[in-house]
Write a structure and sequence with these properties.
Elements lengths: L9 E2 L8 E2 L3 H22 L2 H27 L6 H16 L2 H7 L5 H4 L5 H23 L4 H21 L1 H4 L14 H20 L1 H11 L1 H6 L4 H27 L9 H14 L4 H28 L9 H16 L10 H5 L3 E2 L6 E2 L10 E10 L2 E11 L4 E5 L6 H9 L6 E6 L2 E2 L5 H6 L2 E3 L12 H11 L6 H14 L15 H13 L5 E5 L7 H17 L3 E5 L3 H7 L2 E6 L2 E6 L1 H5 L2 H8 L17
Parallel strand pairs: 7-12, 7-13, 10-11, 11-12
Antiparallel strand pairs: 1-4, 2-3, 5-6, 5-8, 8-9, 13-14
Helix pairs in contact: 1-9, 2-9, 2-12, 2-13, 2-14, 3-6, 3-7, 3-12, 6-12, 9-10, 9-12, 10-12, 10-19, 13-14, 14-15, 19-20, 19-21
This protein binds adenosine-5'-diphosphate (ADP) and magnesium ion.
Adenosine-5'-diphosphate (ADP) binds next to strand 6 and helix 17.
């Protein structure tokens, strides 16, 4: 592969099939909504009150499932807390809408201004939703700083606390007794309208750039930070949005039931909704809705079977629990068949529609050349792990356009040093300067946005996102500020530059290993980095793959001109590629110079091959692999 002249449009590999990209979220929302709307409206027009009530109830539950999925699906953090938002909203709207005469009987201790208030349910509902969204935002600030299991436990705490508050606030809620007299105004069309709104909002959020960044962090948090994603902020956005949708579900449920106590918004509904989400597929909005439908139908069928068995075969005593047992078995069956739920990571259009061809004009890239001034300066950086000095007062410098190799025996601190530079690890001493600015201790997503890209020793892709989405995350989160309309084009161009454009719509986790490494480089390039840190980019590659990589990296320097810091096992690759080589041993820099100088430095040979063989002066570096 010969280097293309700088700044010139780079023709990308146009080999086989057309590039395929995914559909816009609205297409998927409509595919899901149309059948639901047809069936529900048919029931509304033709069925009796009982069936209408059931359908309304489950439409409302679908809104609740969507609320959970907006947070849990995108962030990967299981939430037990959203029923708390539903309960709060239901009680606020209840107190504001119960007729004054009934309040005087059932809530005699209300403050006067509330006792005399009787609002229209839409006004009361809107007030409840706004209040609960604000509460959601505030409690989300600490919760979203946590991750994984601790965040899930915190949401459980929230559920328990809010339940306690609702039961305790007797004057407003009647404690554990039911609120009575809330206007029952929710029917099928109204519930359906909110299902549509919630579904469309959830789909748009999932496919939006912040949604994509959050899903990337769900797949791999350190890798997401390394491409500039502010994980806490994205989580908080999803949490607040989902609190708002949960509040809507709570208001709808209140005006559907008319009579309810805090118990209605506790564990039972939390688990019912989580079961729907798990059965349908946690990470897919269509899956959440499908889960609600499947579980609902199962419950209804099992319940009618249970009733008929009881009336036909048993007089006394009746057999209870068949519905629950049957439901549990059915759920186990679904999960046994599909571990990640019915829809897994896919949306409905991925099943129904074949992927679109990429828009025309997306096959050429005009890479930006980075400016040559400035540099990355690492001074006397030390990083300890317990008593071990993994990096010991190491210094190095890297200029844009330069390729520097970082070698050293296993465990000599190369990966740790890359971690310190990229902000993934804190330094215990020393400073790191980026183009004259001190970046020591800066969070990794900010360092990434300042133009430091990296890849990882063990490939860290967003495995369940497509290749295109992997690159798009970095485009969105990085500093490059691309307009969304041009993003698909730029993604395809970057993938093309690494020779993997044909895999744009494939899930990253399904690529062959060598291609995954290339995708990781494409993703880092989306930051338009001035400095690119590559941790063993050729590890696990055969000779021809590593030769191709060498050509790609050489061309990258020609065309884009970032500074490359390359850690690798393959010393022959390092020697052919690099202008300068730095050697680490036990965390310390023991040599630095041109590849020729370093190769013949006795200290280096000793570090690599041990004392005994120093005299022999190993002739072939390629045998000196770690
Ligand atoms: P290299 O990349 O050169 O093989 P590393 O930077 O991975 O070396 O490791 C340097 C030393 O630091 C090793 O002794 C390793 O065991 C230790 N180390 C690396 N990461 C951690 C960690 N997260 N916790 C504890 N020790 C670590
Ligand atoms: Mg390493």
């Amino acid at each position: 592969m010969s280097p293309a002249p700088a700044g010139e449009a780079t023709p990308v590999n146009t080999s086989s099939s057309a590039r395929l990209v995914s559909w816009p979220p609205l297409a998927g929302s409509l595919l899901m909504l149309v059948p639901i709307a047809v069936v529900s409206l048919l029931v509304w027009q033709t069925a009796g009150a009982a069936l209408q009530g059931t359908v309304t109830h489950y439409l409302v539950l679908t809104v609740a499932v969507l609320a959970f999925s907006a947070f849990t699906g995108n962030s990967g953090i299981l939430s037990f807390g959203h029923a708390a938002f539903m309960g709060l909203a239901a009680h606020v709207t209840g107190v504001l809408t119960i007729p004054v005469a009934q309040k005087a009987i059932f809530l005699p201790d209300l403050p006067l201004w509330l006792a005399g208030l009787e609002l229209h349910f839409l006004v009361a509902g809107a007030i409840a939703v706004v209040l609960v969204t604000i509460v959601g935002f505030l409690v989300g600030i600490p919760i979203c700083r946590l991750g994984g299991a601790s965040a899930a436990i915190a949401t459980l705490g929230l559920l328990i606390i809010v339940y306690g508050v609702l039961v305790g606030a007797r004057d407003f809620t009647r404690g554990s007794q039911a609120l009575i007299g809330v206007p029952r105004t929710v029917d099928i069309p109204l519930a359906l309208l909110f299902v549509a709104i919630a579904l469309i909002v959830c789909r748009i959020f999932r496919d939006s750039l912040p949604g994509l960044e959050l899903r990337a962090a769900r797949e791999d948090e350190p890798a997401a930070r390394a491409v500039g994603v502010d994980v806490h902020r994205r989580r908080l956005l999803a949490w607040t949005l989902s609190a708002c949708i949960a509040a809507i579900a709570g208001v709808l449920l209140a005006h559907e039931l008319g009579v309810y106590s805090p118990r209605e918004f506790y564990f039972q509904i939390t688990f019912a909704v989580l079961v729907m989400l798990i059965v349908g597929g946690m990470t897919s909005v269509s899956g959440a809705v499908a889960g609600a439908i499947v579980v609902t139908i199962l419950i209804e069928v099992l319940r009618s079977v249970e009733e008929s068995i009881n009336t036909v075969w048993f007089d006394e005593p009746t057999v209870f629990g068949l519905t629950d047992i049957g439901l549990s078995l059915a759920i186990l069956g679904v999960l046994f068949w599909r571990r990640n739920g019915l829809f897994e990571y896919r949306e409905i259009e991925d099943f129904v529609l074949s992927p679109r061809k990429a828009p025309a004009g997306s096959l050429t890239a005009t890479p930006e050349r980075v400016a040559r001034d400035g540099g990355l300066e690492v001074r006397d950086v030390t990083r300890m792990f317990g008593g071990l000095r993994a990096v010991d007062s190491a210094s190095l410098s890297l200029k844009p356009g330069e390729i520097v190799g970082l070698i050293g025996p296993n465990g000599s601190g190369k990966t740790t040093l890359l971690g310190c530079i990229s902000g993934a690890l804190e330094c215990d001493a020393g400073t790191i300067e980026l183009d004259g600015a001190d970046i020591t201790g800066m969070p990794s997503h900010l360092i990434a946005r300042r133009g430091v890209g990296r890849t990882f020793q063990n490939v860290r892709l967003f495995s369940n996102l497509s290749c295109q989405e992997n690159v798009k995350t970095a485009l969105a989160a990085g500093s490059t500020g691309s307009r969304p309309a041009r993003m698909t084009e730029r993604c395809l161009a970057l993938l093309g530059e690494l020779g993997i454009a044909d895999y744009a719509s494939r899930r990253a986790g399904t690529l062959a290993y060598g291609l995954q490494r290339r995708l990781e480089i494409a993703r880092a390039l989306a930051l338009e980095p001035r400095y690119l840190l590559l941790d063993e980019p050729a590890a696990g590659m055969n000779e021809s793959e590593s030769d191709e990589l060498l050509a790609i990296l050489a061309r990258l320097r020609e065309v884009r001109g970032p500074g490359l810091l390359v850690v690798d096992h393959d010393l022959s690759l390092i020697m052919r590629l690099c202008d300068r080589v730095i050697v680490l041993n036990k965390g310390e820099v023991i040599a630095e110079g041109t590849p020729e100088d370093v190769q013949s430095d006795p200290v280096v040979i000793e570090a690599y091959l041990g004392r005994r063989r120093t005299a022999e002066r190993a002739t072939s570096w390629s045998t000196a692999r770690e």
